Amino acid sequence: MTAPLPAPAPGWAITADVAVVGSGVAGLTAALHCAAAGLRTVIVTKARLDDGSTRWAQGGIAAALGEGDTPAQHRADTLTAGAGLCDEAAVTALVSEGPAAVRRLIGLGARFDETPGGGIALTREGGHRRRRIAHAGGDATGAEISRALVAAVREAGIETVENALALDLLKDAEGRAAGVTLHVMGEGRHDGVGAVHAPAVVLATGGMGQVFSVTTNPAVSTGDGVALALRAGAEVADLEFVQFHPTVLFLGAEAEGRQPLISEAVRGEGAHLVDAAGTRFMTGQHELAELAPRDIVAKAITRRMHEQGIDHMYLDARHFGAAMWERRFPTILAACRAHGIDPVTEPVPVAPAAHYASGGVRTDLAGRTTVPGLYACGETACTGVHGANRLASNSLLEGLVFAERIAAAVAADLTPAGPPVPPPHGPAGGALLPAEARAAVQRVMTEGAGVLRSAAGLAAAGRALDRLAADGEHKAAEPGADTWETANLHLVARVLVAVAALRPETRGCHWREDRTERDDARWRRHLVAALTPGAAGRVLAVHPTGTAAFPATAAGPPGRPAVPPPTPEPAPRPVGAAVKRENPEP
Q: What DSSP string runs through 372-397?
């Protein structure tokens, strides 16, 4: 186990069976099912209960719900989008259990848009060969799912700690999870640093989009769950595969932070990508044109921008007319008009921006990580479902399906944890970076590890991140929410750059300008990374898996089946020292 973040000792504690960290679709679903199993459950969330990434999801949730559609067809589309790196067992679980999971969500009160006949209205998005995307409020699917789940959590009376940043995992003397430390910001029942003592901890903290200068992710998406898991000694996988959404509202070259998303569903309903001359450029690029998988569309847009020496393209949906825009995409219409753009009468300027992390904390099919008692689901996790590139609208479904599986596993696995033991001796996580270093990390990552990557760019990014760490050693910042978040972003950035440098090919959303071909013979496998204790500090150990399937996590009890039954209905860079490479590229 590596040292935790520098922080005051916990001044208060809550005792529970399960601590769920995060309040998006994955976290709330896991909490509801754990509580239904009779487990005392506490939800820890960084903002308000309804303020996670889920609420911003526009397009919808994918499942084989339509006439003539089947899980097998959904599976085929998912495997195609994943560019050879999906774990097929995980995909099979997702698509086969997905339709029932969506119906259970509807049973909780989620209201999806309907056809005139009363069925669920379905649309298409990139990579899907059928209409299988259920949506709500036109383009406010995430907000409706969040509303329904939050209402169910409140009705169930599940204890919640809001405005709380999770800091580090607590472990007992046997190395099992024993809870989590957290810092509560603002007024409330608790304040300052405290702890939830629990033998099961579920990480559902969302993504790490804020590691880049421009993203669709909210400000809370600072990679906290992945960083916490790394410091606890857990393995992460596929961190190099960051999906850049092709069509994000372009607000100018100087714009930073969260930018408005123009949902893929707009293209699913017939919008066209055009350049400044009004010429469509996706026809001939892929048989699905604008509905090709996201990595292909993002690359085509970027390539066209470079060819023409400009910094954005356009999405033309003027042919929709005002009535369709107002009925089907009211949220997007309002966002565009708020920025002085009227998609009813003019093309919308768009450019790719960081959107979704396909990788994360490595889990088995029940959400177990490589640390006993620690589970992960949603964007924080790497279940193997997404491979090298997430299929549109599979993320909300993954949150539902694997959260239910986690709840079943926690109920089956739960054993009392020993009391938390002090962390290893030595510096408490190293010096913190000042809060202003956050912008520097984002600039470094956007320039060196963004849509286009190369050996030289990744090496430069690694050196720049190392310099930031060295500066932090000389100008240590004070512990606080902003410096803890900056530390988390810096850690996940260093690991992302290291694994991206070790994948010398282009695959899915990892696009190497200097190695443009896919190399299935040597690289149709995952890169797994973990921080391990070393003589000179923390060492990043990276190794490739033998195949595209993940090996067992070995964190469950001996003899426990890896897949519990579904819930019954109701450049290699060091992190502090040298990098240890196992089976490097020949």
A: TTEEE-GGGEE-SSSTTSPPTTHHHH
Report the candidate in 136, 166, 284 with the shortest Cα–Cα distance to residue 227: 166
Cα–Cα distance for residue pair 127/389, rounded to 1 Å:
11
DSSP 558-576: TT--SSPPPPPP-----SS
**Structure token digits, residue 386:** 């997404």
Q: Is residue 294 among the annotated active site residues?
A: yes
DSSP lists the bridge partners of residue 243 as 356
Residue 391 contacts residue 85 (beta carbons within 8 Å): no
Catalytic-role residue among 124, 132, 267, 294: 294
Q: CB-hemisphere CA count at 13 Å for 180?
A: 32
Query: Predicted confidence band at 321 (pLDDT cuts at 50, 70, 90)?
Result: very high
* Phi, psi of 430, deg, nearest 5: 80, 180
pLDDT confidence of residue 556: 53
In the sheet that holds 381-382, the strands lie side by side as 381-382, 360-362, 236-237, 527-534, 537-544, 580-581
Confidence of residue 213 (pLDDT cuts 50, 70, 90): very high
User: Higher confidence at residue 533 or residue 376?
Assistant: 376
Q: Residue for token digits 């279940």?
A: 383
pLDDT of residue 538: 73
Measure the N-to-C terminal CA separation of the chain; round to a whole number of Å: 31
| Helices (H) then strands (E): counts for the chain | 14, 24
pLDDT at 59 over 90: no
